[in-house]
Design brief:
Blueprint (H helix, E strand, L loop, with lengths): L2 H44 L26 E7 L4 E4 L1 H6 L16 E7 L2 E11 L6 E10 L1 H52 L15 H60 L10 H36 L7 E4 H12 L7 E4 L8 E5 L1 H17 L5 E9 L2 E8 L32 H11 L3 E7 L3 E9 L1 E2 L5
Parallel strand pairs: 7-9
Antiparallel strand pairs: 1-2, 1-5, 3-4, 4-5, 6-8, 8-13, 9-10, 10-12, 11-12
Length: 482
């Protein structure tokens, strides 16, 4: 059974029980009220009946101002002493006679009873008449009223309640089924969207809902949010796969050149030292030795290049897995002074200029010394590579709780449209590709180190005028080392 049918069944069942209770309460109240009012009227009229002073004859005083039969009441008296019965005129004309209570009823009080006479229902009030002197039961006063009209009214009320409840159930069930179908219809849209997504790959589907922000609206909002997150995750996954494919392609390209060089030199050495003397080139031993040493040197250079490339790729692989490194409070001034001292021994053709680090005497940063040095040397080596002549400088600035380590050069610079890509893996500007030595992984590694240190990098560059990199790192203020 579907949800809307179950909801309709529950709603109809609850409504049915409610209508039964409500109808029963109404019928019971009307029944009790109607009979109670009639009993009250009969009692009031019974109090107006007076009897003569005689003990033997117990008859209503005919001089009473109000005749009971004129009020649709039927009066009957019974005298025990002479066993005589008196009936009002309307009873005589109708041929009616009430059953007289037995003697055993003498000790009881007046009571009401429902009887049927001639096929007509009556409510009879039986009141004992006590002798004034002896206190014994002298007879009975009985006053009755026809309840035909009351019974007919109650039957009509019963019919109205039954038919009205049935009609209410039918109408309410129909509208309940309609409302349940309308309320549950958005869930059908969710199911259809899920089936379309399951059968296809279109994660851009969204469920349109213009209803109130109820539980159904919250469900659809949650489902649309889940689709958005899934779509975003799927796109990130596709981008990651695309980046991985590019990474593998670029790595293969970068490894192919040194492997080709190594293989060529190995083949040359193998040919020189394994061929018969008559098949060797017409060179003396000194020339062959020189050729061999050059080939071995090429192999060593390419092996070192491959080693650097593999180390860089391992660093980036570690970055992709989300791994970090241990950090601690590091004094900034000794770190920069050590980097500046060691940088002057790097291979370069440009002048090396170092700023004043005295202002950093009591300033610390939270980081890893080895990785920070690696990051700074990447920027400095790049500055030396792309500055064939001119100046490369290193200094630092302080600004709002951050230190900016600035590496500037007067080299070839870059165009502005190249700046967003310089931290991509294996990216190298067209002007430097194939001219300047490198793999294009250094800045990617540097950017990862900066991100782990919760820092940022600022780039200012212009073609033909040089580039400036400012690495911003958060500071930790601490007393200077002893």
């Amino acid at each position: 059974m579907s949800i809307r049918l179950r909801l309709t069944a529950w709603y109809t069942s609850i409504l049915f029980v409610t209508l039964v209770i409500f109808s029963t309460a109404i019928y019971t109240f009307v029944n009790l009220y109607t009979y109670s009012e009639l009993e009250q009227r009969i009692r009031q009229q019974a109090k107006r009946v007076s009897f003569g002073q005689g003990i033997i004859e117990v008859l209503p005083n005919r001089s009473s101002e109000i005749r009971l039969e004129d009020m649709d009441l039927y009066v009957q008296t019974f005298t025990i002493r002479n066993n005589s019965t008196w009936r009002s005129d309307n009873m005589k004309f109708s041929g009616l006679m009430f059953e007289v209570p037995g003697v055993e009823k003498a000790a009881t009080e007046a009571f009401f009873s429902k009887v049927s006479l001639g096929g007509n229902p009556f409510l009879v009030y039986s009141h004992p008449v006590i002798e004034q002197y002896t206190g014994s039961l002298a007879g009975w006063l009985q006053i009755g009223a026809s309840t035909r009209q009351i019974e007919d009214t109650l039957k009509q009320l019963q019919t109205i309640l039954i038919m009205g409840s049935a009609a209410t159930l039918v109408i309410a069930s129909s509208f309940g089924l309609f409302l349940a179908r309308k309320s549950i219809s958005p869930i059908g849209k969710v199911t259809e969207a899920a089936e379309r997504i399951q059968k296809g790959t279109d994660l851009s589907l969204r469920i349109e809902y213009d209803g109130p922000p109820d539980e159904i609206g919250q469900l659809i909002g949650t489902f649309n949010g889940m689709l958005s997150r899934t779509e975003s995750f799927y796109k990130e996954l596709e981008d990651a796969y695309a980046a991985q494919r590019r990474f593998v392609s670029d790595a293969s390209h970068e490894l192919r050149t040194p492997l080709t060089t190594i293989r060529g030199n190995v083949d040359l050495l193998h040919k020189i030292w394994t061929s018969p003397p008559e098949d060797r080139p017409d060179l003396d031993e000194e020339a062959l030795k020189q050729i061999s040493m050059e080939a071995i040197g090429d192999i060593a250079d390419e092996a070192r290049r491959m080693s650097r490339l593999v180390n860089d790729m391992l660093s980036l692989a570690r970055a992709d897995t989300g791994k970090t490194f241990e950090k601690s409070a590091i004094p900034l001034r000794p770190l920069l002074e050590e980097v500046a001292r060691r940088a002057q021994f790097l291979k370069r053709t440009a002048a090396w200029k170092v700023g004043d680090f005295m202002m950093l005497g009591s300033i610390y940063i939270n980081g890893n010394k080895d990785y920070l040095q690696q990051m700074l040397f990447i920027f400095i080596e790049n500055a030396f590579k792309y500055t064939p002549e001119g100046v490369v400088s290193l200094d630092a600035v302080l600004y709002k709780g951050q230190v900016g380590i600035r590496i500037a050069d007067t080299g070839i610079g870059m165009d502005k449209d190249e700046v967003p890509h310089i931290f991509d893996r294996f990216y190298r500007a067209d002007q430097s590709r194939g001219v300047t030595e490198g793999t294009g992984l250094g800045l990617s590694i540097a950017k990862w180190i900066i991100d782990v240190h919760e820092g940022s990098v600022e780039v200012v560059t212009k073609r033909g005028e040089g580039s400036t990199f400012i690495i911003w790192l958060p500071l930790v203020f601490a007393p200077p080392l002893e």
